[in-house]
């Protein structure tokens, strides 16, 4: 079994949570579809919490999203394109205010970190 293999039956969510806890660095790729996964949003909250504790660094990659635009705006602006707005409107009815607010704060936090911007055939740091 290689270093990245998981034995059958291991809960992927728990394995990823442990991997984030055991690491000191994460690369987060934020795209317009990022918010479609509560799993990814939970991971981002965990990364943000570990960063706040001083135990984790994060490099965001903005894939067809500009960090100059407040990424949190993508959550509330239905004209932004992408699925942030629709996803978060749905989440507000499915999850607690505290959990949804943590996700929104984590996206805003990520937008404030200097990272890579990848757009149609171009990249910039």
UniProtKB/TrEMBL annotation:
Keywords of the record, alphabetical order, are: Hydrolase, NAD
Q: Is Metal-binding one of the keywords?
A: no
Q: Which domain of life is it from?
A: Eukaryota
Task: Report the GO molecular function annotations.
Answer: NAD+ nucleosidase activity, cyclic ADP-ribose generating
For this protein, the record's SUPFAM superfamilies field holds: Toll/Interleukin receptor TIR domain (SSF52200)
Which residues does the UniProt record annotate as the domain TIR? 1-125
Q: Does the keyword Hydrolase apply?
A: yes
Catalytic activities: NAD(+) + H2O = ADP-D-ribose + nicotinamide + H(+)
Q: Which InterPro entries match?
A: TIR_dom, Toll_tir_struct_dom_sf
Q: What is its EC number?
A: 3.2.2.6
One Pfam family it belongs to: TIR
Q: From its record, what is one biological process in GO terms?
A: signal transduction
Q: What is this protein called?
A: ADP-ribosyl cyclase/cyclic ADP-ribose hydrolase
**Species the sequence originates in:** Linum tenue
The lineage is:
Eukaryota, Viridiplantae, Streptophyta, Embryophyta, Tracheophyta
């Amino acid at each position: 079994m290689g270093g990245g293999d998981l034995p059958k039956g291991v809960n992927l969510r728990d394995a990823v949570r442990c991997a984030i806890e055991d690491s000191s660095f994460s690369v987060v790729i934020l795209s317009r579809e990022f918010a479609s996964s509560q799993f990814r949003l939970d991971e981002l909250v965990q990364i943000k919490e570990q960063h706040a504790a001083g135990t984790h660094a994060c490099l965001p990659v903005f894939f067809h999203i500009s960090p100059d635009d407040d990424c949190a705006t993508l959550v509330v602006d239905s004209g932004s394109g992408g699925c942030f707005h629709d996803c978060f409107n749905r989440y507000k009815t499915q999850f607690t205010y505290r959990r949804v607010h943590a996700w929104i704060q984590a996206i805003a936090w990520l937008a404030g970190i200097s990272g890579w911007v990848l757009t149609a055939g171009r990249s910039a740091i």
